[in-house]
Amino acid sequence: MKSYRRPVGELPGDPGRLSLEYGLQEPLGGAEDRDGIEEWAVSVRVGRFRDRTVGGVVGALTFFRLRQDERFSPSPAGDAQGEDSALFHTVMGCYDLGRGGYGQEFRDAMTSAEGDLLVLWDVRLDPEWRGVGLGAVLASQALWTLGAGCAAVAAAPEGPPLALCEALGFRLCPRPLGCLLDPAAEEARDAREEQRRRYDALTDAWRAARHA
């Protein structure tokens, strides 16, 4: 039996009815200046219930994907700086700002340096859905969906809590790298499977509590 910070039966609805909706944020003006960076807004939605009024959007996650491809941008770090100074400081340790591309420290720490860099920026849930580990479950699903083809996932220092990042398989790397997840590492894949098991167990526990 999984342990939770609050009774599972207090959730306002069946966690098995949660879904993620992905949206690429693209401004109409100046889009040519953002060729090397994508902002993804992920909405957490829940279906409506016959006996309750809950439904609609109950949370949100934000990701940035920096494209490591000279066809789009010779300097992903530069694009990050143009987008947001905090984003730039989050990823600058991964890049060689003089020569371009990933820095040697990043290459030494990751299984592969081929691919984009995804940044987990923010994870938010409505209060009534907190306390049972859903933040990590949802973030895991979203980052593995958006992170296809990425060399690594970075976590914003002022964004998701460290405990949540550790549950996802992130590790705190030596300076200047920061908190990174290596998609090819066994620990990251194990963390993904653990979050899937936690979601199944949570759904079963909620249904058992409701029918007890």
How would you explain this protein's 3D organization?
Strands 1-2-3-4-5-7-6 form a 7-stranded mixed beta sheet, with helices on both faces. The mean pLDDT is 88. It has 212 residues and is α+β, with helices and mostly antiparallel strands. It is globular, with a radius of gyration of 18 Å. It contains 6 helices and 7 strands; from the N terminus they run βββαααβαβαββα. Helix 4 links the parallel strand 4 (116-125) and strand 5 (150-155).
How large is the radius of gyration? 18 Å
Strand order across the largest sheet: 1-2-3-4-5-7-6
Q: What is the H/E string?
A: EEEHHHEHEHEEH
Mean pLDDT: 88
Work out the strand percent: 15-25%
Provide the helix percentage: 25-40%
Largest sheet: 7 strands, mixed
Structural class of the secondary structure composition?
alpha+beta
What is the terminal separation in angstroms?
A: 16 Å
Task: For the structure shown, list the relevant keywords.
212 residues; globular; alpha+beta; 6 helices; seven-stranded mixed sheet
Tell me the layout of helices and strands:
Elements: E1 18-25, E2 37-46, E3 56-66, H1 76-83, H2 85-91, H3 104-109, E4 116-125, H4 134-146, E5 150-155, H5 162-168, E6 171-173, E7 178-181, H6 186-210
Parallel strand pairs: 4-5
Antiparallel strand pairs: 1-2, 2-3, 3-4, 5-7, 6-7
